[in-house]
Amino acid sequence: MTQSETPRRRRDAEENRLALLEAAGTVLNRDPDASLDAIASEAGLSRRALYGHFATRDDLIRSLLAHRVSRVLAAIEQVEHDDPAALLALIGVRLWREVEAVRVMARFTVRGPFQRELAYALVPLRDRVRLAVTVGAATGRIRHDIDPGMLARLVEGAVLSVLDEATLSEIDVPTGDRLVALSVLAMLGFSAGESHELLTTIPGFGPGLSA
């Protein structure tokens, strides 16, 4: 192998690995028990090529979850706002926009050995939500009649409820944005009028959110 061939083969191997992860996300989102053959076929590769990257099905799933978690955490790191209520709404919207990454992870949160691993990987996200809730309650910006840890979990649940609805009906991105933001703010103790007023002040939410 020449020196010029080595980096090309590495690029090809990495491209194949990413193709297998994307295919796994697509196939396992449809059927969590899908076969490795189905995943390899979706990626346009052979089963042998799949085993060249992942020794077992569990290895593939762990790599997929790590890939999706890193994608979600990278997206959330970009979300900033001085108002904790607005920050939580924006975090919820960003999670919704990563719906496919979140949905496939959610399918494995209750599946055997992956539950604990996934919960650990998502600690940075949950810590940030909990901190925003704690600050918001301490400053009187959001409700303080619910324990911050519990309220943080309820905020997370508000986002997941929209993801559940998305599996039952056709929800476009602007509608999902609006539903997530309003659901999060309602959980934080905002009235409908207060929620709409806040959303009109946040750049980048889109016209659908201020209706």
Structure description:
This protein has helices at residues 5-30, 36-43, 47-51, 57-77, 84-97, 99-108, 114-121, 123-138, 148-168, 173-187, 192-199. Helix 10 crosses helix 11. It is mostly helical. The protein has 2 domains: 1-55, Arc Repressor Mutant, subunit A (Orthogonal Bundle), CATH 1.10.10; 65-203, Tetracycline Repressor, domain 2. It has 11 helices and no strands.
Count of β-strands: 0
What is the distance, rounded to the nearest whole angstrom, between the alpha carbons of the first and last residues? 62 Å
Percent of residues in helices: over 70%
Residue share in β-strands: under 5%
CATH superfamily membership of the largest domain: Tetracycline Repressor, domain 2
So, CATH architecture of the largest domain?
Orthogonal Bundle
CATH domain class name of the largest domain: Mainly Alpha
Category by helix and strand content: mainly alpha
Which descriptor suits the 3D outline?
elongated
Task: Give a quick account of the main beta sheet: strands, pairing sense, barrel closure.
Answer: none
Any low-confidence stretches, pLDDT <50, length ≥5? none
Helix-strand string: HHHHHHHHHHH
Number of helices, counting only DSSP H or I runs of 4 residues or more: 11
C-alpha-based Rg, rounded: 20 Å
Counted up, domains total 2
Average pLDDT metric:
84
CATH topology title of the largest domain: Tetracycline Repressor, domain 2
